[in-house]
Amino acid sequence: MDWYNRLNDYFPKEEMKKYSHLRDLIQDQDMYHKEETEDYLLLYGEFSSFVFVDYLLVNQKRRGSGVGSKVIRNLKEKRKPILLEVEPADPQVADTQKRIHFYRKNGFQVADQIHYEREADNGETFSLNIHYWTPKPVPQAKIYHMMSKACHHIHNFRSEQHYGRIQADPDEVLELKQPVLS
């Protein structure tokens, strides 16, 4: 359970799944994986057509040393689109800006046509941005459908059992906006 404490100490409370939920994902979802070393902790779902990074945590002492970029490179070798959720930049929280810079540096772009808003256990809503990397160009409508699948198979996996509710109904938390034509 040390790995869970590491995640819980770093990620915002509203983004954390319960230990029992993550345990069930790891044990009972063949596509959900946990990689743990002293340098990093990675939890992700590998679907047939894409990878969804649920959590990536690099040991604080190793940040800036290339560990995170190496983890991302290893995922890119699967030659599938990679999706993940990132908090919007908050000038009050330096780590939010560092995360965005890290993903941008590693070739990720923001799915600016997808609005993603979740509800925390206390009823407050929070927004996350979907960042993605693809080996070849993919329309954001396809990213939207991949994210819907991640919500269904990861966020909502036994969520009623663990939280008493569906955590991320794609029809309610995701919205695909039309691109702005210039």
TrEMBL record:
Domain N-acetyltransferase: 1-139
Domain of life of the native organism: Bacteria
GO molecular function, one term: acyltransferase activity, transferring groups other than amino-acyl groups
Keywords carried by this UniProt record: Transferase
Protein name, UniProt field: Acetyltransferase (GNAT) domain-containing protein
